[in-house]
Amino acid sequence: MSEQKTPVDEVEELRGTVREQREEILRLRDLLVGKDVELGIAKGRVVEFEDREKRLANAKKRIESKVPFVGRLLEPILRLLRGLP
Known about the structure:
Blueprint: H1 7-66, H2 70-83
């Protein structure tokens, strides 16, 4: 014969289930917070790279405006540099 659960047993089983679910929720929340931090760091790096790119583009424009042929001289060098790892 199978043993019947008493209401007290059922309540304890439900409490255990709720406890396990709360622990899982906390674990998942911690993972989400960690991923959010990683995403924030990555976004910050993108902004840094974009800012650096803008500054270099502005410097290139200033140089080219003062010495127009520099762009033609630098182009082969830049092509070589782009090919390097």
